Task: structure prediction
Amino acid sequence: MRKTIAYARVSSPDQKDDLEQQKQVLELYCARQGWTFEVIADLGSGMNDHKKDLKRLLNDILADRIGRLVVTHQDRLLRFGAELVFAMCEAKHVEVVILNQGEDTAFEEELAQDVLEIITVFSARLYGSRARKNQKLLDGVKHAVEEASS
Result:
């Protein structure tokens, strides 16, 4: 028998109240339907596909352990790429229930956070690569000075 999974996610720790609210909505909905279910929740950006429970969810879908997936909003799975997960669900005959088909009121706020996260990651990579180049240059100069003084 395949199980019902209710999945909740928020982007940042300061949204823990929203995460609890999502979980309560999912629990109430699933209970009213008479389903036996499990609620799993992740804390992390919708841009990040390396969340522990999201990976577990995807593995369970692929292994035919899930028969139904319930989310409050489409973007709770992933900000971009949720359509791929839904296509995988369709291929594996997993029913997808999205409780709120409308736009999330906090969509713009979370999208802005995701964009800032992207900028932060790319900035860190850029400055990190510059730091390595600068370190190589400094090491070369140091080596040249040591050879010259020998």
Q: What stands out?
A: The two ends are 77 Å apart (CA to CA). Residues 42 and 100 are 19 Å apart (CA to CA). The mean pLDDT is 79.
